[in-house]
Amino acid sequence: MNPYADSAAEDARHNEAQDALPWLANGTLCGTELDRVQAHVETCALCRADLAVLRTVHAAGPGPDLDWDPERALGRLLPQLDAPLPAQDAPDVQAVPAPPGSTSGFSPVTRRRVRRWIRQSRLPCWIGTAKW
After folding, report:
1. Rounded distance, CA 83 to CA 3, Å?
2. What's the pLDDT at 6?
């Protein structure tokens, strides 16, 4: 919604142009829609600012190809959890079983595996401080 729109029709044109900005930024908008959106962008500071941001994002190029399938992710994670630690990374202390009445719900073996995976994956330090 354009707070500077004088009428509902102008607001509708603004919303239509906003919806088309990603295609204008990546160069795939064409025909009369291209003409309409370009004409609107010339008169609308909000759309010009949004278009500048979208062009910056587009110029950065595609991001990494992420695999969002949870089954494949779990398939990659489990072998890492079960892999033996190299001798230099072996912990100096033994894992202590959870005290009676602990609500963590994880067995000592699971906690050890998760801690080992966190250390090996070099996740941010704050994750390693979690209480398991």
Report:
1. 58
2. 63
